[in-house]
Amino acid sequence: MSGRALLMWDDAVTGYDFGPSHPMDPVRLGLTMGLVRAFELDRALDVVSAKPAGDSTLRLVHREDYVAAVRAASANPAAADQTYGLGTLDDPAFAGMHEVSALIAGLSVGAAEAVWRGEATRAVNFSGGLHHAMPGGAAGFCIYNDASLAVARLLELGAERVAYLDVDVHHGDGVQTAFWDDPRVLTISLHEHPRTLFPGTGWPEETGGPGEAEGSAVNLPLPAGLGDAGWLRAFHAVVPELLAGFRPQVLVTQHGADTHFEDPLAHLAVSLDAQRAVQLACRGLVDEYVEGGRWVALGGGGYAVVDVVPRSWTHLVAIAAGADVAPETVVPSSWRDQVYARTRQSAPRRMTDGRWPVSYRSWQDGYDPEDRLDQAVLATRRAVFPLRGLLV
Length: 392
What we know:
The chain is α/β, with parallel strands linked by helices.
């Protein structure tokens, strides 16, 4: 198997544009690719595109009538059918919506195909990670669920164990729904508590469909205001043991940057340093527990589109490429000029928030029954670990 990493990219993904007042500004994608190039990371991996997902691929997850509704709204946005979640405040219809959404899905599917076939061991699509789209509807800024489609394609190609790990601040509800009854897929989501954030799901008791799939969904809802040490404690208290037990043939990860303390749409207080620490942890877990080291890494949410998203996902690309960018690295001046030219905003000067190294207390050192985070971790472990044959 090739040790080369892939970056899935096509300039056309910046056409995923809900309009000037929408928080999901596609400038975050262009600026991320600009920063990747400023660090010359495009020389450390292969930058490739892929064909848009066709109807047969989209139907691996999405209903035929929904795909038809997206096509219709794409051709005539004013006539979007809101019963499918299209033409709403969250998911406004726009011309070309089907085409660009299918392209983003195709990039994630192409990443999955490449790692499964041995053309690369790792592949990144930071334009993907649109994890809220449901089989029959758009939701939460997501039209097609590229993450689910990537997993479904892996299953179609013969994978028997695929793990999906989601560290976006929002629950990965669409992916969980797609594979709720499928024991071949282990979904793990760490997210802000459903009482305080969209989509209101992702409780510890959501553990997968009855029967063979029970225990195939893992949810760790985190208290609002949680910072670096708690976020990393939660991650390491749950994820490594699950992956060690499951031994996936591929790990698909979703790295929404909206856990950051500057994000305007959520309430966690995580730094870029901690986000980078989790990205590094994912690479380590892939090397230790994933057959062949197969890793597909996706983007996701993130609405601090200048200060946070480009730096976070550039670290992700660098880590996947094995060309890590040190936390204290100064941001290239050429990229700072690009930021100002495109947004009239001042760009950040260094690659993290200056909190490296980030420390946390290991779960193995004991827990505090009065602590809200430890209560959440314990609830998740109690709900799902026995179902997977693991000790609470």
